[in-house]
Amino acid sequence: MERLLTVSGLTTEFRTERGIVKAVNNVSYHVDEGEIIGLVGESGCGKSVSQLSVMQLVPNPPGKIVAGSAEFEGEDILKHARNSREMCAIRGGKISMVFQEPMTSLNPAMTIGRQMSEVMIEHLGIDRKEARERSIDMLRQVGIPDPSKRIDDYPHQLSGGMRQRVMVGMAMLCHPKLIIADEATTALDATIQAQLLELLYEMVNKYHTALVMVTHNLGIVARYAHRINVMYAGRIVESGTVREIWANPLHPYTEGLLSCVPKLGERLVPIKGMPPSLINRPATCPFLPRCRRRTKRCFTAPAHELEHVEGEHYVTCPSKLGGGEK
Description:
Blueprint: E1 3-16, E2 19-32, E3 36-40, H1 47-54, E4 63-72, E5 75-76, H2 85-90, E6 95-98, H3 112-123, H4 128-141, H5 147-150, H6 160-172, E7 178-182, H7 190-206, E8 210-215, H8 218-224, E9 227-232, E10 235-241, H9 242-247, H10 252-259, E11 307-310, E12 313-315
Parallel strand pairs: 3-8, 3-9, 6-7, 7-8
Antiparallel strand pairs: 1-2, 1-4, 4-5, 9-10, 10-12, 11-12
Helix pairs in contact: 3-4, 4-6, 6-7
Membrane topology: Peripheral membrane protein
InterPro entries: AAA+_ATPase (IPR003593), ABC_Ni/Peptide_Import (IPR050388), ABC_transporter-like_ATP-bd (IPR003439), ABC_transporter-like_CS (IPR017871), Oligopep_ABC_C (IPR013563), P-loop_NTPase (IPR027417)
Subcellular location: Cell membrane
């Protein structure tokens, strides 16, 4: 597969009254054409900010991308000004994003049809009549009943699940090369979540679109993703194929996330403690205070960079390092 997106050394900071928050700290990963990637971690670990940084949607101030690159189809898109013609053409046209809460993404004062049509008029240059016809067809594809009538509804007239289906449809209108689904099903109940995930999976396969699934649920990405990146405290701590990470999790944080996946007849094992402050990040492993495998060496050794284990498996804390002196 051809390389579609390569993110290298991405670092994003937020200036606050208490200090500088390093929300994303030297993050590197890649996405191939037609590939589904899972980006998992607790709330506040930097997974959403990393994707907003690629799209240049981080509010400035207080946020700022201070380092790194994001090569999309061989071009570093972070070199474009956030509101430049080039970046606006990429957002929505080549890279689309499905946000967690559609009511904050959809304009409550505009009909669904108008919002969908404007996307195609802007990026595809078609007229309003054709844009409306394509919008109705897309609503039909994403499972909206009676789309020729619902296209004139306002967002508040649709249920949460239907609004999210509209967001998926809007993301697919211009047949982008990459879709970023940022906690796209978190606000929905379990049955609607399953329907939306299956819909998203069918759509990206139909149009051969790459997908980055941002979520805290490893169980979701295990079903749909090819590879997983596990984030903690603003950095990727483990990366590999679903099979490699599910069969042999090496980082204790990954083990903790897997223990939180509900299993019939088994008790959930929570990860004790709280994530560290991203203002005064410790020089040692940020997971150290919560780690059950920590050794004396962990209290003095600097935080590791990702190290290759085998295949496509990388980790910042290889299991071989956990067998030292207690």
